[in-house]
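Task card 7
Instruction: Convert sequence to structure tokens.
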Amino acid sequence: MVAILPDMAKPAFRIKAYKAASHPHLKFVVRSNLSGKWKRRFFTTKGEAQTFVQQKEAELHQHGKAGATFPDWLRVMAQREHDRLAVFGKSIMHAADFYIAHLEARAKSVPISRLRAELVANRKSAGRAERYVYDIANRTDRFCKAFPGERTADEFSTADIDAWLEGLDVAPGTRNTYRRDLRTMFSFGVTRRYCSTNPVTDTTKARQPDEEVEILTLPQVRALFQNASHDMVPFWSIACFAGLRRSEIERLDWADIDFDAKTIHVRGRRRKTEKSRRFVVMQPNLITWLAPHRCESGKVHPINLRKRFDADREAAGLREEWPENACRHSFGSYHLARFGNAAALALEMGNSVDVIFKHYRQLVKPKAATGFWKIKSTGAGKIVSF
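Output:
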């Protein structure tokens, strides 16, 4: 069978005798013009030339011009890369799809500073807690400042993130907090198609050693309340005598405090879900601290909470001696020592009984526990403790 070009009535390949003084061993040439340009292949025997023509005619018949004119170097490369990918059960098409998606994402990507700015704006508009927005903005800003210029979000690798995290001179828990916020930022970038994958996902999480919790002593609690500014008293009393986290107090409204039922309704992070809500029983001394500040509704904490928080600790001489989660850990320890009901405490703190026993058992002596729950207010900002 002789292959004929679709637009020509002549054979696609022609074999002719070839004579050249410079190449006396080459006797035959095969000429073709499939791509609009004449090409020649030389052979030492007519049989070799005929075999080549038969092969090319078969390719032309089966695949058309594109198959017959497929360059040998490209054919060799395609076969080599196909074999390399086959080990992983993938094809050249998979590789092309993956890389094209990467290139498209890079073309749409933005500088890392812009990604950070959009994340912070998004969280603000979504009504996230002021403290949350403040913290994630600060931590991601520190990361962005370490990579000045116009480096885009899609240019960061897992190795880049790991190296930056390893260079932080912080405790393991703090490092993991940075890692969490960076993962949030790049995940946001993936949703906006600024990067094809999240490079933080496979970074190494720092191992946090089990450390014993530290609590405030009775003199430190008294010093705190003696030096607390007037409008910070509700914050400190709920933190110490109800055990709420700072983020939970920031979301707390006076309408969530039921003085008649003597309970505080702690809602989940999102008000529309009741998944993590709980009720905390108000002890008599807590009521004495809250009663003078009682309102029907409105935020329990004052504005500029972060600055006020630091200022009160400074006034009480506790700025440098402040344990991690000091108020919450103090509440759990003094509560378990005084009332001895781990199950009830677990419900109030939103923890498991195992966590209660692990962190708060035997940290406080009975006498100190009794004294803690007798730290009351006279209603005029003075402390009564007996």
